[in-house]
Write a structure and sequence with these properties.
Layout: H1 10-18, H2 20-24, H3 32-39, E1 46-49, H4 56-63, E2 67-72, H5 75-85, E3 90-91, E4 103-108, H6 120-130, E5 131-142, E6 148-149, E7 155-156, H7 161-171, E8 174-184, E9 192-201
Helix pairs in contact: 6-7
Amino acid sequence: MNAPTPLHDADTLAFYDREAGVYAARTRGEPVRLRAFLEQLRPRAAILELGCGGGQDAELMSAAGFEVTATDGSAGLAAEAQARLGRPVRVMRFEELEDVAAYDAVWANACLLHVPEDGLADVLARIHRALKPGGRFYAGFKSGDGGDRDSLGRYYNFPSEERLCVVYAAAGAWEPLDVTTGQGGGFDGVQRTWLHVLAVKGA
């Protein structure tokens, strides 16, 4: 029997565990994209955050009155977020997402870009299943021509826009699926083209 496709990269999680304090304390820009995402949700909507990092986005969402379930695959980052939020943050890897029609929205900022290429459709299908019909889902990816590691040893799937659309379509029905591009940096200091994907689960 073939081994299942891994849905996380162990070396990348180990990096975030080691660097959790520094990563969580980094200066971030104004969360314009998050605020626009929240404006489309009903009051007190249930939001699942994947890859919550240091908890800054979860803090903003909670302060705005949303019911936020914050998670991260790194125990170190989950501890940093828990200290910021003052409440438990679940250590959860993508393959552990088993919820069904539980959330009005999923916020996955700069985390699914670490999923091994062959496992991305599985993760997206799990997110599709976890959303209620009409639920909204945001994820950001660094564009490229296939999986590779950055100078810090972190794995990235580096999809093209075309490849990303194919993988989303394989994971479930999205109505609509909107992809926009923009330039941005990261923890490694390298400027890259980002693919910002906003998807709505079909009713």
